[in-house]
Amino acid sequence: MSLPAPAELARTLDAARLARRTVPQLTKALPDLTLDHAFQVQDEGVRLRVAAGDRVAGYKMGLTSKAKMEQMGVNLPIAGVLLESMRRANGGVAELKGLIHPRIEPELAFILARDLKGRVSPEEALAACSGVCAALEIIDSRYEAFAFKLPDVVADNCSACGFVLGEVRDPKSLDLDRLAIELKVGGQTVASGSSDAIFGHPPAAVAELAAMLASRGLHLPAGSVVLSGAATQAVSFEPGETRAVVQGLGEVSIRAVRS
Ligand code: OOG
Ligand code: MG
Q1: From the CB of 140, is ligand 1 less than 6 Å away?
Q2: Hey, whose CA ends up nearest to atom 11 of ligand 1?
Q3: Ligand approaching nearest to the C-alpha of 80
Q4: In angstroms, rounded to a whole number, what is the distance separating the alpha carbons of residues 189 and 244?
Q5: Is the CA virtual torsion 120, 122, 127, 133 positive or negative?
Q6: Looking at residue 44, what DSSP letter applies?
Q7: How far apart are CA 43 and CA 247, in angstroms?
Q8: Of ligand 1's atoms, which has the minimum distance to the CA of residue 105?
Q9: pLDDT for residue 34 is more than 90
Q10: 207-223 confidence digits (pLDDT tens)
Q11: 211 to each of 47, 109, 120, how far by Cα in Å?
Q12: What average pLDDT does the structure give for the chain?
């Protein structure tokens, strides 16, 4: 059986996002959905949003830590696209009204100073970055029960929904391995981990992203924000303040409101 066109599947997922409702996993009806086709669905979904006036801000890596792979039951890293409309100010407010069943997780973010093309080592990837910061990612799966297989989540732009960046530091002055990371909700620590949970070495997430893009004939442009993938499990994003505290990088917070 031939697969529906990527643009058609992208419209289904985007309509679910806009209507704030879930859809069944694509792989339920399409067990032969390939990763390649799923990436084309992701691309079409991004195209829809850019055509509606949005802009690409960068990329997100996902499932780069054991904690996240175990939580989601998927065991390979994934990459999605960040849009400017997903950016929230540090210390700002996020409206829950338009979201389905959002979760939040602590990450590191890298800022690319120059284009990164092809396969590079983590050290080369880090050398191309002008900044690193503590970050929060808000994820919101468009699938029932926040459950998916690898092609489903790739097609759904890796559950991308929102991101918050902390104060940007010079990565060259920091040892990014083994930084303690805490996720706090209403002042209480709800998850904790270490930056080495991210591929054992967080810049490896940037190198892996460059390699994934290169395999699809793409590259990572200068100015991109890159989320590393969460170091801990995600928690439900509820009204009130959520804060990530990253040793050496400082804090980043967002307050969810239900208006
Ligand atoms: C998929 C996205 C994973 C991360 O940081 O690992 C991700 C999901 O869990 O819905 O963003
Ligand atoms: Mg994430």
Answers
A1: no
A2: 62
A3: 1
A4: 9
A5: positive
A6: H
A7: 35
A8: 5
A9: yes
A10: 999 999 999 999 999 99
A11: 22, 18, 7
A12: 97
Q: What is the mean pLDDT of residues 67-79?
A: 96
- Residue 230 to residue 116: CA distance in whole angstroms: 22
Ligand 1 and 153: CB distance under 6 A: yes
For 102-156, the pLDDT digits (tens) are: 999 999 999 999 999 999 999 999 999 999 999 999 999 999 999 999 999 999 9
> From ligand 2's centre to the CA of 103, what distance in Å?
10
**Is it the case that residue 1 has pLDDT exceeding 70?**
no
User: How many angstroms separate the alpha carbon of residue 64 from the centre of ligand 2?
Assistant: 9
Q: Whose CA is nearest to atom 4 of ligand 1?
A: 62
In residues, how long is the chain?
Answer: 259
Which residue type, as a one-letter code, is found at position 146? F
Reported confidence tier of residue 172, pLDDT bands at 50, 70, 90? confident
Ligand number nearest to the C-alpha of 159: 1
Q: Is 65 helix (H, G, I), strand (E, B) or coil?
A: coil
Question: 96 CA distance to ligand 2 centroid (A)?
Answer: 18
Widest pairwise Cα distance in the chain:
54
CA dihedral 54, 58, 62, 67 (to 10 degrees): -110
Distance CA 125, CA 121 (A): 6
Kindly give the number of the ligand 1 atom that is closest to the alpha carbon of 107.
5
Nearest-angstrom CA–CA distance, 96 and 216: 34
Nearest CA among 72, 48, 68, 51 for reference residue 152: 72
